[in-house]
Structures
1.
Amino acid sequence: MSRMASTSADVLPTGSRIFTSIPDIFFIPEFVFGGLVWTLVASTLVDPTVSANPLGWVMFVSIFCFVMTTLWFFIFACGANQGGIWPSLDVAYHFVAVLLYLSASVALAYVTVMLGTVASAVPVLPPSILKIYRLDIAAVVMSHLTTLLYFLHAIFSALRWKSS
């Protein structure tokens, strides 16, 4: 009878086991790529004349997810994730992070495409604008990679939750 009873202690890792378990191994690349999105967007130019510039949303999402993932990581590392609700909270958080990052990635890609459209009309770009455009492209790539990482984390968390 005890074989049928499953506890979250069997499901969610704690301590150093989070570095060796799927999906929790995705924490580290989520930190790295999410931090890159944050720093790349922070180093681009925000045009104050554009009233609907979505870079503020991108910064909010990247900082929010970075902070929440850090808290989530420490909760797992300290072993405070051993209640019955934690597997479902893990799935919910990562799916919310996917939705947030997807919206931010699309907005960032849109801004970059618009900048590229404007830049293509100019025969020779000034080096400062070219640098900003390249930073925006790098931020779009990192943002989409971060979205993919959160999506994989969410899928594997959902599989773990379903099997618990």
2.
Amino acid sequence: MRSYDLSPLYRATVGFDRMADMLDRVMTQDTATSTYPPYNIEKTGEDAYRISIAVAGFAEDELTVEQREAELVISARKAKDDTPRTFLHRGIATRAFEKRFHLADHVRVTGAAHENGMLHVDLVREVPEALKPRRIEIASHRPAAIEAGGVTSETETA
């Protein structure tokens, strides 16, 4: 696996340490374990997203969706089935899994639905009003003339 040195990124940016750490974590993540189950991430609106995971063979009560601070954890565990079966071919993997997604700031889960072997998790990004961009008025400062008494000529009364 390749290793990248991100130290120039740390020198050229201010306040983006968390982003660089996230890039480090993504690049060092083992890709072999993250391929099951297959999933899609799509943008459904300006601030809306959907994660769709193929969960064929799992019932709704065998699936768990949790949001823990800035992390979405989706897991599945097949209920114990004591029915004796003989498979001639077994191509549907119903092994237990836990899938973790790191969420950006102010992203929350709005709902989840299980249909046709797919689990759909809807997310929305809600930036608080205090953090939204705002225009700052630029004031012009004129140097005031100071007289001997410490009173400026602009503040003198006639």
3.
Amino acid sequence: MTQGQRYKVWLAGLAVTLVLLYLLRGVMLPFVAGMALAFFLDPLADRLEKAGLSRTTATATITGIFFLLVVTLAVLLLPIIQEQVVAFAERIPSYVETLNDRLHPLIVELKRKLSKGDMDKLRTSVGEHAGEAVTWALGVVKQVLTGGLAIINVLSLLFITPIVTFYMLRDWDLMVAKVDSWLPREHADTIREQVAEINRTLAGFIRGQASVCLALGAFYGVGLSLVGLDLGLVIGLGSGLISFVPYLGTIAGFITGIGLALAQTQSWELPAMVAGIFVAGQMLEGNVLTPKLVGDKVGLHPVWIMFALLAGGGLFGFVGLLLAVPVAAVIGVLSRSALRRYLRSSLYHGPIP
């Protein structure tokens, strides 16, 4: 087989894999989540195995403790979240009244300064944009209900993911050895070198970024609850958990928190405290959490990460969001390797005289 034919075989295999992933994206969520958890927990299983436990016992212990902690945390948090949501729903009329009191002077001033024709144009424009916003919101709700977060996928996450995690974690080393035996012998060392670098990159980012998100979620949730913001725990936890997208968690939480604070009270004290919490959280993330826990382990620019997340989410939904950064990290490692080879090649230096 010539070099060109080999490239064609690899490209054909890659194309078939991508097509299958796209076609099966609707059922991949519990398997991707289980594989990510197994990857996350594998070092701990290796340590327990070195301590004398069998791989199966170590896997069962780790998986059981991990999901027990998750369930315990959910049991503790869900009643608080439910209480905040119920209280929020009951206070919606007061929010509307507060916003009306805030906006009424502005509306009066606009009526005084604008002509009747300008006011009619403003009403028409606001009505059109409001209709577009409602249509977009309904579309998002429909996509959530019929897409990656449909009830069947939620149930699969609850019941299938633990099973997938257990078997993937138990057989992780066996699978790695089996895949290693399939490598083309001529390029096995090069592939192992690249995979080792990819593994270091992913391990550093996934474990570090997960720690950052949890720390930010706890900081925002506790802080917003202490200052008395309605739905403070929900907004704080949500902001922290989506912080794997650079700046998105802070911006979304900031806008939501400030808007709710303005609707909750006519005083400027609460909005100022909410803003202070998010500014402090951003400083904590930028100066302490991310440098200490993540550092430069991914080697990807934040803009490239945001592009990867948007592209992954657009193509594969929630599964794409889970896979976006790992795939981007793999592409980054392979691209840097290709660049090093190019800089050493005659294509860069030119023919030797």
4.
Amino acid sequence: MNLLEFKNELSVRSKNGISFLLAATIIWTIITVIFLQPFGIKEKNVFMLYSTGLMFPLAIIISKVIKADWKANDNPLSKLGLYLNLTQIMYFPIIFWAFVKSPTNMVLFFAVITGAHFFPYGWLYNTKVYFIIAPIISIIILVIGWAITIENLWFIPFTMVIFLLVLNLLLYIDYKKKCK
């Protein structure tokens, strides 16, 4: 098999990583609810960080439900997908800095990092969807962050939910095309 065939095979077997994106959609929905609560910003940020602990268990459960094989051991690119997902953790020092120095911007930084980290999946799954949506998420979230007040921070995670739903839909369409 050549590289393109490995990428397309991984794309179909893992369903373009949709199980992780569906888990992220659930988590960003939880974060939206957290930011609608009457807690202080530090408490909201702590709960937001705690909610991210659900990511991997939810992704595993969703993978089983939708029959997505994201750990295809016979495909040399499958581990790369996991490594790309783990790279987001490398940006957590920025999140921790925001927690201490700029707590009202923490959700903004987290959303921009989340959106931007999708970009390399365009190469991995051989789909333009990630290449297009990743920078759009980051730029739109940044613009929203400039425009809103602390009382409306919930709009940032809510926007992420909308983007994730769109991303899931477009990736599912791409997956179906590759199955034909």
